[in-house]
Design goal:
With 277 residues, this protein is an alpha/beta fold. It has 2 domains: 2-83, Alpha-Beta Plaits; 121-276, 3-Layer(aba) Sandwich (Rossmann fold), CATH 3.40.50.150. It contains 9 helices and 14 strands. The chain has a 7-stranded mixed β-sheet with strand order 10-9-8-11-12-14-13, sandwiched between helices. The protein has a 4-stranded antiparallel β-sheet with strand order 2-3-1-4, with helices on one face. Strands 5-6-7 form a 3-stranded mixed β-sheet, with helices on one face. A hairpin with a 2-residue loop joins strand 5 and strand 6 (97-101). Helix 4 (129-141) packs parallel to helix 5 (157-164). It starts with a strand and ends with a strand. Bound molecules: S-adenosylmethionine (SAM). The site of S-adenosylmethionine has 24 residues, from helix 4 and helix 5.
Length: 277
């Protein structure tokens, strides 16, 4: 398995971790670097993560890092990289909606919707604050038989949650190759494969409009996609965005004008925004 190691000054650990999370990683481990402190006044920290095994995809993601950060990839033993799986627990999205790691036993309970997810090498175990916020917001605005577009589906957690909650049809897209088979397998696992179409189709090529559009992606990507996000949200529809930081997302809203924010949800410094035309 390919690990990505990003070396940053200690003062930039938080911003670097946020950037990695928003790029779609599932876990980030911090390791202090034992180097001559004269190199930097606040110590260097290595952030270890994985972004799948395609070195070109990793290199493309790393193009967005500031040039002062150093990064390299390294082959690691999969059993060590998979240690986090032993600690994975269900994530409650609302009192009646829970995302459960596929290998964790969670008995069915009446009235509780359970989304079972095997993320593989994709993002979306359901525990990241932005996933929780997006799925919570989607569950709040969804109506029976609504159509849904999930942009940046990762493991498919949002698409599958929407399908289980009553959406009639869900289109799920992602630029990452691994997201397609992973979302398809998770849709099958949850018995909603017939309702979900998954592909690597770019948003620019998605035709028509959807009742609910969700995108949990880094702010610069949301800004790049803004014209299409407006286009694919039906006139009476709802756009749910996350992957943006609480108190630092006005530039995203500016790009989406004249759509208006009708709700904001916050958790651990992250925000989800609910917009309408
Ligand atoms: C933070 S993850 C979100 C995964 C999942 N939807 C969730 O909420 O847990 C962001 C996902 O967006 C994908 N992505 C990034 N840029 C994209 C783009 N321009 N179009 C579609 N997907 C994109 C990444 O590959 C990644 O899977």
């Amino acid at each position: 398995m390919l690990a990505l190691v990003v070396t940053v000054p200690g003062s930039e650990v938080e911003v670097a971790s946020d950037m990695l999370w928003a790029l779609g990683v599932m876990a980030v481990e911090e390791r202090a670097v034992d180097v001559d402190r004269s190199e930097t006044d606040d110590g260097l920290v290595e952030l270890w993560t994985t972004m799948g095994d395609d070195p070109h995809q990793v290199a493309r993601a790393a193009e967005g890092f500031p040039s002062r950060w150093r990064w390299h990839t390294i082959e690691v033993d999969e059993s060590v990289a998979g240690e986090w799986r032993r600690h994975a627990v269900p994530s409650w999205i609302t009192p009646d909606l829970v995302v459960v790691p596929a290998w964790v036993e969670e008995p069915d309970q009446p009235g509780i919707t359970v989304v079972r997810i095997e993320p593989g090498s994709t993002f979306g175990l359901g525990d990241h604050p932005t996933t929780v916020l997006t799925l919570r917001a989607v569950s709040g605005v969804l109506w029976p038989d609504a159509t849904v577009l999930d942009i940046g589906c990762g493991s498919g957690v949002l698409a599958i949650g929407a399908a289980l909650l009553g959406a009639s049809y869900v289109e799920a897209i992602d630029v990452a190759a691994a997201a397609v088979p992973t979302t398809e397998a998770n849709a099958e696992l949850n018995g909603v494969a017939a309702k979900i179409a998954v592909s690597n189709r770019p948003l620019a090529e998605v035709e028509g409009t959807f009742d609910v559009v969700c995108a949990n992606i880094l702010a610069p990507v949301l800004i790049d996609l803004a014209d299409h996000l407006r286009r694919v949200t039906s006139p009476s529809g709802v756009l749910v965005l996350s992957g943006v930081l609480e108190g630092a997302h006005d530039h995203v809203l500016d790009a989406l004008a004249p759509m208006q924010v009708v709700d904001r949800l916050h958790r651990e410094g992250w925000a989800a925004l609910v917009l309408r035309h």
